[in-house]
């Protein structure tokens, strides 16, 4: 367990070390108007949506699934809220808008769950439907425009500070909640059981459909909240670009964190590390003065490196110390 | 052993359904809009989607073998970038073409090897490939690079006259050649049949003594090659290279292949299905642009719905 | 009929002193095996005897740790099935290992297809495939999809593939397990044709009638060791079965006395009438009383697991009724069975039983937790108490609840699986091969546990390939053969010999004692 987090931890440490050497200012923090600023804070703030979505994705992947639609769902959430707020400045409207958006996201999660658990369609295809159609729906809601709002209450979600950025506080709160719920209820254990051995779980009487349904709804709601953060941060809903490729970042975060795409044992801490690695990488590339778009190259390298290090076959090939797998 | 009248093997049904859908969509367009039912509109379907046809052909190989390739869109972008900047640097056209095709196939080979040798899911490996190719575009240049090379522009704008005053471009010819070649390889060679065998049951294929390793790596090389070729066609179409070209095109390619009746689980499907899938997508776009009042986002919604319908149909056929 | 008696030709395959070990298991120990041209040779043995491993060693799937394989006088060492095929050893497996999405002709000839202008010559391919099929008397369109044909025909296509090359040795690994009587007759006709052509056929089947009908010679394995090689005509069924199931009394004798026979007269807990499922088990009647141990005896493939799965709802019955506690019960799945107090411990511990990557604790409480739903977790204290209780009661080692189940020995894994169901306090416990592949000590403990549970009023349905174990432990014995219930015996007066007699069947009349 601890061992699994070793490589992600090392990767994160290496990235931070690189920053320490190249741009020491990365680590400087300053307080201003009761808010903390600095490179590290930026990492947390910008990484909050990815982390949130990755949390939902972790549980989905643990059940041997995958959810490609989260980016589209995030876009829908932002679009619905912004359209609902319109020109209003009141906090009540903002809250109502967000509530409507999240309920809608839960419904979209139900839809994914229906396709996967109800109809038995491969998760990757089932969620591809919503990934494709979802952006269209988001544009339908915004009528193809970038909808801007001016609502201070809404602005808080993505850009506000309570010493730390509110967005990361929300993400960490959700992380804490998920960790609490999965450990304190039997959800975590049953998710893993379904992911490790679906047939044995069935014969033990596990309601795998309910479990699968639950994780897809949860993933969609997480995506919704992330969508709110993204849209709130810029006070606008961009149906085309909001949350674009965030599903891929989230999947990467999960995989880097040591959760196998084959399902089964998952690690929320690993996912946290994975999301931090991705965001630190992005920020680092930016601060050392490389064009931000090139981040993608580094991302690819990190992904392949971490996957190779974790792949049993690669370990054997590179003759790492033998992993004992008694049968 | 049924004796129902027209003896069409059930394996052709999904493709026929897609073709029927294409005819239906086109029929609706012809009935509602003047000038829709012209040869040039059909020709334009091919002209505007030549690169997608090539992508779908490559993707068909990968999906038939039971894999998936998310990198194709990015490889298209990378190819446009290499083409544009190579020509800008004064490289001769043939060199550029060879370089682009070589880069695409090498990327495919690398991904195939990692997938096969280290047993990492194709999804993750090609996702990394997608990031890598997209990132490499920006390493070359962050800006859009336009193509000014004379030869290249001539080829791009050359029109081939068909009977009836319909014109097509060389892109269309190349795309159709690729489809023909893909069909030959898939249906007439041991490699192609092994692609089907691996997708149908990899363990069986192995026990049957078929060259599974070569196929499992080979399909990604083919997909990479097709992507880079599609990238060349896209350069001809856009006359520029840009890192933000072809964003999300991998999804269009996958959607076209699935709508064309190819099972994502592998083993069942045809190149022609992918072609029909592309034409359906193209027709929907044309319909929406003829309509005028319908906004472009309906395209996405309709594609999503189509995907859903075809998956549901396939699902019931498999369960049967 | 060609059993070579006076001067046998040299064997085409000779395996000498073959040994092979997997982590934790000695799959084969010093096994000798001979296969002569023009004979049908049956390889006999119960589950885990090493039949499949021996076959896979011959066909290049496994490399033996020790010993040599001699083919046609030359020592060989195949590193892949392809190489073995090339050398003339073709294999047809139990599950049709062909591609249903390809045509019949492709399945027969792919990998050695006729070519023309660099591409596959399909007309020639169909023609050749048609010829091969005709050789074994199968008349289907070579251009049709394999998947369109029934399993039996697919099996014949697999044989056609096997003989499409120059084939000296044909290995048929349980080819008949999914065929009906007519299809088996067809297969045997083909096997005789090939035998008479001089092909050496290695045949594995769990149906004794078939083995006696078709084979000329047989080799018996048990627990990875060679027990004997006989001409089929020389060995009667009883001797054969005795050799297959063995008689390992030893450490177990102690329990025999403890489990003195009782006559449980508790209320009827479960009553099945005409319950059945096509292709799995013929409709049967069965009554189980509270506190009773009912043993299921029968060879592998006799329908014993299938029967158990029907009672648990793991598979759905397509005929008959089930009454539990006097009330009809419709099983829609395992959950409804569990709700009715039925528990089922599968013979496939790894595939259908344990969740290998979870801890002992999680595996122990899985069934109970699943019944409660995820929102009502077992309180930590209750969980700990349960785990502690069963770790101790079943002597599970290591007694560390956090150890991953995959790291446990077979016997301890089996105990964890048992404990998972005991936690739910079932009224009927179905145990499918609970003692297979575990050490003698654990075996004795599990048998003891069954006896204790029954004394406390739990009904137990006990399935085992070891007849002695079944006879010793059961109050009543249900005998199955060829997917049918053929007898029900009083456990207190029945001996192993009597059960063997029934299983051997053959011409024996169907009798119902008790």
Automatic annotation (TrEMBL), chain A:
Superkingdom in the source lineage: Bacteria
Locations listed in the record: Cell membrane
The transmembrane segments are 43-61, 68-87, 93-117, 124-141, 161-181, 211-230, 242-261, 268-288, 294-312
Q: Which GO terms describe its molecular function?
A: transmembrane transporter activity
What GO CC terms are in its UniProt record? plasma membrane
Q: Does the keyword rRNA processing apply?
A: no
Does this UniProt record's set of keywords contain Amino-acid biosynthesis? no
A Pfam family matched by this chain, by name? BPD_transp_2
Q: What is this protein called?
A: Simple sugar transport system permease protein
Q: Which organism is it from?
A: Lentzea albida
From TrEMBL, chain B:
Q: Which domain of life is it from?
A: Bacteria
Q: Which UniProt keywords apply?
A: Cell membrane, Membrane, Sugar transport, Transmembrane, Transmembrane helix, Transport
**Taking the first listed entry, what is the main subcellular location of this protein, grouped into a coarse class?**
membrane
An example of a Gene Ontology cellular component annotation for this protein is: plasma membrane
Protein's UniProt keywords contain Zinc-finger: no
InterPro entries listed in its UniProt record: ABC_transp_permease (IPR001851)
Q: How does it sit in the membrane?
A: Multi-pass membrane protein
The record's annotation in NCBIfam families points to: PRK11618.1 (NF008630)
Name of the featured protein: Simple sugar transport system permease protein
Automatic annotation (TrEMBL), chain C:
Membrane topology is:
Peripheral membrane protein
Q: Which InterPro entries is this protein grouped with?
A: AAA+_ATPase, ABC_carbohydrate_import_ATPase, ABC_transporter-like_ATP-bd, ABC_transporter-like_CS, P-loop_NTPase
One Gene Ontology cellular component = plasma membrane
Q: Which CDD domains match?
A: ABC_Carb_Monos_I, ABC_Carb_Monos_II
Q: Which UniProt keywords apply?
A: ATP-binding, Cell membrane, Membrane, Nucleotide-binding, Repeat, Sugar transport, Translocase, Transport
A GO MF label: ATP binding
Domain ABC transporter stretches: 13-248, 253-507
**Any one Pfam family match given in the protein's UniProt record, by short name:** ABC_tran
* Subcellular location(s) per record: Cell membrane
- How is this protein named in the record? Simple sugar transport system ATP-binding protein
